[in-house]
Amino acid sequence: MNRVVFLFLFFLLWFFPFKIENFENENIHYLEIAKNITSEIIHTAVKAEVKDSSEFNFSISQVMLLRSTLSKLEDTHKQYLNTFNQNYHYSVIQINKEVNTYLAISEWEEVVNNFGGIKGIYLNSYDFLNLEKMKSIKSILNETVVNTLVIDVKTDHGHLMYDSDVIESYELNNEREKYNSESLRELKVNNNIYLIGRVVAFQDPLFAKRYIESSVYDSKTNSIFSMNGQYFLDPGNKKSRDYVLNVAIEACRLGFDEIQFDYIRYPDSNNRNLVYGDESNFKNRTRNINSFLLEATNILHGEGCLVSADIFGYVLQTKSDNGIGQHLETIVQSVDFVSPMVYPSHYSNGSFGYKYPNEHPYEVVSESLNDGLERGVSSKQLRPYLQGFWHSIEEVKLNIKAAEDKNLDWIIWNNSSMYDENYFTKIES
User: The pTM is what?
Assistant: First the structure.
């Protein structure tokens, strides 16, 4: 058989392996046609002992059909290659996300296994460049059991504490740069700590005033809602959600091990005149809060960060969302950890049977955490914020003991970032 016939057959066979199932259109089976034509060619060539390609005689219809078939085969081949490339890139992305998630979990597990759990303190990021304050913080990190630092990424005032590329930051002029990836890496490595970035989510005076359509509106005052100097974003508003999420992604890429969302809620107000994008009811509120957290968790895991959410302490006791969208049984399904703020000073007089709860730190913290554990939250997932203000050294130690007696991790909160190293000496009984 001459080279012309051989090359023609090779050309046909080159296309056959790719997406054979796609060779059908309007009851025309292209593969069968190609097979039949090929068989006819072979039969003719063998029977006539063809030595020259010019000896082949095809009808016009055969030629047209053959051209059409070859064109279809070529298109299918191109589609296959495009699909292959798309699937390849998708697979690479997915593998990368899985690796990052694994590394994030491993980082956390290493801290837990080597140091007996997460033992943290909060650092107000406005103090990051305060040499005296940082000297005290680093001393605690190196001389006590504390192995974790929580630092503001996006503050209560709406400021971003790093150089951001999020589009809205240019319009808001809200950068107050205190650190970058290099300074965070240095802090983390030199002090051997687990680093958590705190992102204030749906409380933001700068964003609310600039993007009124994304804020909570008060129909009575005909203006955006404010309460004690706080301005709230609508948790169901896409622009609000995207902005907070994009900030969180940047924070993760800066080098934080975990992103912690605070003010992940609706305003805790009895004002009946507040207007949202959708009706304010239990279903919508919890859906908006949890869908945001679930989306954030999925994305941030792929970026290499775990995710936590700060919640009010009373969320551990109430089965309702109390109008703020925080419901214990649903929110724990959306994040890696929850941090209830079980500050004794924040409970009303008479809570847990104590006239002045702030005077009974061990009992109040212990009973509050019991409520969470009894509702099915795992000890691994429950990581309380403890009171590091308005309490004596011994009272702070009692806060810590209440958490550790239940084998729980903990974080101490003090807005001024002032801590005594004696807070972290163990109480034996």
Answer: 0.81
